């Protein structure tokens, strides 16, 4: 399911125009991005939660040469599905 499919479904199910669905979807994504950038956790009841986790720096190995390299720390987004969502799969 792509963005066009999501917008079409929002428009149909919500009884709104495609333009209104685009604005609502865009606003939702922008709000989620801003919250995650601020380090806040996002909880969507019945779906799951999103949060930013920091993966600490660590040593790794270059598979071609076998040399040890330093992998820098980085942030990643973690998604945890809700229990009810997991049970529907």
Which short descriptors sum up this protein?
89 residues; alpha+beta; two-stranded antiparallel sheet; 5 strands; elongated
Structural class based on helices, strands and sheet pairing? alpha+beta
Largest sheet: 3 strands, antiparallel
Q: Uncertain segments of ≥5 residues (pLDDT<50)?
A: none
Annotation, overall tally of beta strands: 5
Average per-residue pLDDT, rounded, comes to 94
CATH superfamily of the largest domain: IHF-like DNA-binding proteins
What topology, given as strand order, has the largest sheet? Answer: 1-2-5
Distance N terminus to C terminus?
16 Å
Strand content: 25-35%
What is the CATH topology classification name of the largest domain? HU Protein, Chain A
Number of separate structural domains: 2
Order of helices and strands: HHEEEEEH
The Cα radius of gyration reads 19 Å
Based on Cα principal axes, name the global outline.
elongated
Number of helices: 3
User: How much helix, percentage-wise, in residues?
Assistant: 40-55%
CATH class identity of the largest domain:
Few Secondary Structures
Name the CATH architecture of the largest domain: Irregular
Descriptive notes:
The protein is an alpha+beta fold and 89 residues long. The protein folds into 2 domains: 1-35, no CATH class; 41-89, Irregular (HU Protein, Chain A). Helices cover 43% and strands 30% of the residues. It contains 3 helices and 5 strands. The chain has helices at residues 3-14, 18-37, 83-88, and strands at 42-44, 48-55, 58-61, 68-71, 74-81. A 3-stranded antiparallel β-sheet has the order 1-2-5. The chain has a two-stranded antiparallel sheet with strand order 3-4. Helix 1 (3-14) crosses helix 2. The protein is elongated and about 60 Å long. The model has no long low-confidence stretch (mean pLDDT 94).
């Amino acid at each position: 399911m792509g963005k066009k499919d999501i917008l079409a479904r929002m428009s149909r199910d919500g009884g709104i125009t495609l333009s209104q669905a685009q604005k609502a979807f865009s606003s939702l994504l922008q709000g989620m991005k801003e919250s995650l950038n601020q380090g806040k956790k996002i909880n969507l009841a019945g779906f799951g939660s999103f949060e930013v986790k920091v993966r600490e720096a660590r040593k790794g190995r270059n598979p071609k040469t076998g040399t040890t390299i330093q992998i820098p720390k980085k942030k990643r987004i973690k998604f945890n599905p809700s229990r009810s969502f997991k049970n529907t799969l």
